[in-house]
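[SOLVED] Need 3D model of a two-part complex

Original post:
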Amino acid sequence: MNYVLKKEVFSKFVNSVLKEKGIDFIAPVKSEQNDIIKFQKLISFSDLCLDKNAYYPLKEWFFKKNEVLFEFKGDKITIPEKKPKPKIFFGVRRCDLNSINRQDVAFSEGCWDPYYFLEREASTLIGYHCFEKEDNYCFCGSVGLEDHYDLMFYDRGDYFLVEIGSKKGAWFLKQRIRFFKKTTERLSARKKVIKNANRLQKKNIAPFYDHKNWKKGVDLCLGCTSCNTLCPSCYCFEFKDKVNISNLKNGKRIREWSACQLKDFSEVAGNHIFRSDREHRFKHRIYHQLQYFNEKHGKHLCSGCGRCIRGCPTRIDFVGILNNMKTKKPNVKKPKK
Amino acid sequence: MIKNKKTKTKSTKKSLKNKKVKKSRTAKKPQKVDLVYGLVPKKKKIIDFKRETSINFTLKLDWKVKHDPGQFMMVGIPGIGECPISICSYSDQYVELSIREVGNVTKALGNLKKGGFVFARGPFGRGYPMHYFKGNNVIIVGGGCGIAPLKGVIEYITKNRTDFKDVLLYLGYRSPDDVIFEEQLKSWEKKFCLNVSYDKAPAKSCYDGKVGFVTELIRKSKFDNKNKIVFICGPPIMMETVINILKKKKFNNDQIYISAERRMQCGGGKCGHCMIHGVYVCKDGPVFRYDELMDYKND
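Solution:
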């Protein structure tokens, strides 16, 4: 069963959720200083910005930049008790919803990551569908996105069509049912397709690993790692021990984001670096996103949001580079007579 | 207006109820799961500290944990850091770790004494699948520090000697001063066919013995590829040349087992540092059959 939320009621709905105690309402907000849209705790309805996708990904709310794993005092280790506040995320696009699903897969694979899933369980994801691609960097149509949401809002002119995707979403809606009305309207899969977004034409990039065209992108790369930090599904991390300056035996171990574009990412004892070439590091990221993860889990790690290209200082368009690559024709040597 | 107020109070009450439910759900899980996942290290006592050479030492930890030969542990001291160290023993009663001082953490570990404590988590990874090789001849090739994980294999074989036929050991050291496991070498010499080589003669003391690489020992030896399994662990150049020699002796790729080394942070196949073409060394390795990795030499 789908629901309808009229746009006149929309502001009332948001304001009522904002007034509820014990819940954080997080939505894209445009900063006044530099016009960058970021997911933030919403204070008033007028700050809400749904025109464009957020520049920064949503991952920092679950997979945190600095996560304290434990604190130590000499030989004693204490695990901090974490009770995350229930959070509602509104205005999450389809690409971000998928990338959160990919991180769920990565952090539950093998052994369950408690720090990530504590935050994840306390969250309700409300999506906002974009019917058109945002700009020329998007390529979400060609990475095979699926439906992963608790609630999904479709903008239908003067009303929102709301779809329920999980029990959590249904429960959230049931509490605020006074704003919604039932409908029988349904959107077919064809209508949900984001238009003109299937820019990446290659489905299997494995044969191009040794292609010479990679050099075009590699030569422009500065190794600044903004692609890693802006990627909504990159999940590599590092442990660091931060000690108190007053007493060096006390401190805490922190989990920080890490970036595979950094040279010391694969450095081992004896100063040996396994991926010392920039080309290997550049290819490693793209192949992890589009091939390695797919081989294991049957879906791309990349969600096609285009943030890595939009945020790159030299705008390296790896999708364009991949599209221009052509498979070498097999060199069939004629047998010598 | 009054009606509105009523509905508001109701909704807030409901939300409070929800909050309670969520709290009880989340409060239970972390304490249980944290230790299972192994992000939080355990404090372990050092029963024995033995200095093998000027830079190598062996720690014996009071830790009764089941492990396979070839698995590794994340060992460290809070405030300094952690590093992956392979287990060099095979026992239910204790864990032995052979360490070379190369970085901050290993140097700090070298300053520890018997009766002290280290913080460790593990064991991680996939070791040598020893039960798989029953009835085979085993060739073990180790170089320098790489002998440490192979010592676990040798201890496994001595415990289950009847399961294996001939055992050939080829061990290479940099010089006679750098010999680790000197005591064990004497007992291995009696039980197995032991070949030791030294890359260089020591600088200060006088030494008359032969000098040469392990690879040359293998090149000269006359064994064929029938019913044989080879375990190699050592510096990458050594492993590559040994594999090339073995290929000339017509060994198949699935007869060779190598042990890979990468930077590691989590040990559970998440942090991504140890990834080689989508394979996590910490989770899917560190022991690989050669054909699993042979296409990825550059990476």
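Edit: Confidence is low (pLDDT under 50) at residues 1-36 of chain B.
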